Amino acid sequence: MNWNQFGYICRVNSSKTLSTDQKDELSAQPHLNMYANSGSHSKLAHNLVTQIASQDEATSQKQATYYQCLPELVNEFKFEHKGWLSYLTIVFVIYVLSSLLYQSFVVPTFVEIYSKHTISLNHVFDDYFTYWYVPIILLVLLLSVIFTVILKLKNVSALTELKPFSGLFKFLIPRQLINEHNSLITTLLFPSNHKEGVKASTPQAEHLAQCELLGLETQEEFKALLKLQLKLLNTHIKSFISKLVIVYGLVIVVSIYLFVKAAYQPLFMLGEVL
Question: Is pLDDT at 36 greater than 90 in this prediction?
């Protein structure tokens, strides 16, 4: 189930004019298929629909009224990742092709020239040409980590999972981002998890509980808080990815420097031989 399908289910269940049978009929798969190709699958959306469906009609209607704003918010703060991935891939491919072309065509030519003279090849070619593949392997590993992190954060931004940071991601993702996501999920689950008299676990949930207790229109406040937290999370995700790209860029720059330094060494010594 994607978020647009979820929004449709919420609109149906929040209706005060439809009967239970009519809501069930409108929630059938043929109607859901109208929104099937308008977003990625979300386990969180599926879990929330299951939660709404398991409640009595009054509770289900109330929760659906809260949650019908989610598709709009998720689409508004959807994280665009293709630009980052394209940029990193293009830089990496250019570097690798340059290294392979130099190793395949230029180095053999120098070897042939210098082998006709008494000068030792060890003085011509430094260690870079012996271990030229090492920077490429390191860049592949670094690029793989960055790609994995970007795709994970894309899913985090799209709210596809309840607990996305497991395994290695607990160490790869900054604690600040994890805490912000956890706080966001706590706010998101407020309509289904809140119980009167039970202390809230976050300031946002406590605020919503107090608003509801005093009679404020909590649905609008719920939407406003979610929008604020999604915007903050999205901003920090982009900031973190920018830092990863900078680190990758520095590694690329160092690798290119070593490549150029090693590439010009045979040219400088060519004058001595000729």
Answer: no
